[in-house]
Design a protein that fits this description.
Alpha-D-Glucose-1,6-Bisphosphate, Chain A, domain 4, seven-stranded antiparallel beta sheet, alpha+beta, 173 residues, 7 strands, single chain
Length: 173
């Protein structure tokens, strides 16, 4: 009887190992900028002007619907992304947003950008963090372009292009 119960438990556990779905992914990037936190924060918190410092974005249009503020980004690739502002904390210099839908191969994307004081008054550290899942939420086989690697690569590309451009804008403005 013990062998039967043990066998049933092992079978049940082995099926559950493969039934978990996708794992959450995270990209976190930081950059030091030789400009005051107030100056950098003024650029970052302008939710409708992200095209000024993310080279992959050619246009940004802000829409207000009730309590929601969204922006529609036009990408250089021709795609569109709709993002919703989740909050701006002036004191913490933190902006939170999420992707509602669009051409970036991620699901349930939530992000924040924080501007912090650097080692001197004219220096800032900007940290950009995104948490998300791959597009395909079922178990393998995973269709090409909907996997974890593609999702992480897309977000990393945006951050790696945006942060140096933000640095250049803040330091020359």
């Amino acid at each position: 009887m013990k062998k039967i119960i043990t066998s049933i438990l092992l079978i049940f556990i082995s099926f559950n190992v493969f039934a978990h779905g996708p794992s959450p992914q995270k990209v976190e990037k930081s950059i030091t900028i030789n400009a005051s936190p107030d100056k950098v924060w003024a650029i970052v918190k302008d939710f409708g002007a992200v095209q000024k410092w993310i080279p992959l974005v050619t246009d940004s249009k802000v829409e207000k619907k009730g309590e929601d503020t969204t922006r529609i980004l036009t990408l250089k690739s021709g795609g569109k992304v709709i993002e919703r502002l989740k909050g701006i904390d002036e004191e913490a210099m933190k902006l939170k947003y999420e992707i509602v839908e669009g051409a970036i191969p991620v699901a349930d994307y939530n992000s924040f950008i924080v501007v912090a004081k650097g080692s001197n008054p004219n220096q800032s550290t900007v940290t950009w963090v995104g948490r998300f899942y791959r597009v395909y939420k079922l178990n393998p086989p995973i269709p090409a372009g909907q996997d974890d690697e593609t999702a992480v690569k897309a977000v990393t590309e945006i951050y790696d292009a945006g942060l140096p451009a933000l640095k250049k804008l803040a330091e020359t403005k």
